[in-house]
C-alpha cells in the first residue's frame, strides 16, 4: 500500500510553532516513527508553503497512490484550487487537522476540501495522521 501525507503552510514548523496548539514534536520525528510502526506501508511525505505546489503534488500522486492524507492547513479554508484538485483525482483523500478547527476562529469552520474528501479527522493532535492512516488499512 502506497500512502502520502501532504502538509500545507507552516506545518514545517511543527515542534517550534505554538506548542500549546500543535505540540512540541517535529513532524520529521513523528513521521519516522510512523514509518517504523507501519513497515508494510510505503509512506511518503511532502510539505509546501505554496498552494500551487500542493495542487501539483495532488495531481502527481492522485491517480497512482492508494491514499492521501492531506492537512492543507490554512489553505483548507481559502483554497478553492486545492478543493478542486481533490475532486479531480481518483485517489481517496482523508482531510486531517491537528487542532479542533471548530474550537478556533470562525473562518476555520469552513473547508473547501471536506466536500470531496473520503473522511475528516480533526483535533487529535499528531495522532490524527495515524488515525487517517489506519482508515486506509
Automatic annotation (TrEMBL):
Annotated site residues (Transition state stabilizer) in this chain: 17
Keyword Amino-acid biosynthesis set for record: yes
Annotated signal sequence range: none
EC number, UniProt record: 4.2.1.10
Pathway(s) served: Metabolic intermediate biosynthesis; chorismate biosynthesis; chorismate from D-erythrose 4-phosphate and phosphoenolpyruvate: step 3/7
GO MF annotation: an example: 3-dehydroquinate dehydratase activity
Top-level taxon: Bacteria
Binding-site list for substrate: 71, 77, 84, 98-99, 108
Purpose: Catalyzes a trans-dehydration via an enolate intermediate.
Subunit and partners: Homododecamer.
The protein's name in its UniProt record: 3-dehydroquinate dehydratase
Gene: aroQ
Amino acid at each position: 500500500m502506497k500512502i502520502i501525507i501532504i502538509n500545507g503552510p507552516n506545518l514545517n514548523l511543527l515542534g517550534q510553532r505554538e506548542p500549546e496548539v500543535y505540540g512540541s514534536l517535529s513532524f520529521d520525528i513523528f513521521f519516522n516513527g510512523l514509518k517504523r510502526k507501519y513497515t508494510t506501508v510505503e509512506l511518503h511525505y511532502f510539505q509546501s508553503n505554496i498552494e500551487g505546489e500542493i495542487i501539483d503534488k495532488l495531481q502527481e500522486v492522485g491517480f497512482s497512490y492508494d491514499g492521501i492524507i492531506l492537512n492543507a492547513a490554512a489553505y483548507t479554508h481559502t483554497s478553492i484550487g486545492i478543493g478542486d484538485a481533490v475532486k479531480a483525482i481518483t485517489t481517496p483523500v482523508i482531510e486531517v487537522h491537528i487542532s479542533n478547527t471548530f474550537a478556533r476562529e470562525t473562518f476555520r469552520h469552513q473547508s473547501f476540501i471536506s466536500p470531496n474528501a473520503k473522511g475528516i479527522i480533526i483535533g487529535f493532535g499528531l495522532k490524527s495522521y495515524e488515525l487517517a492512516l489506519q482508515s486506509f488499512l
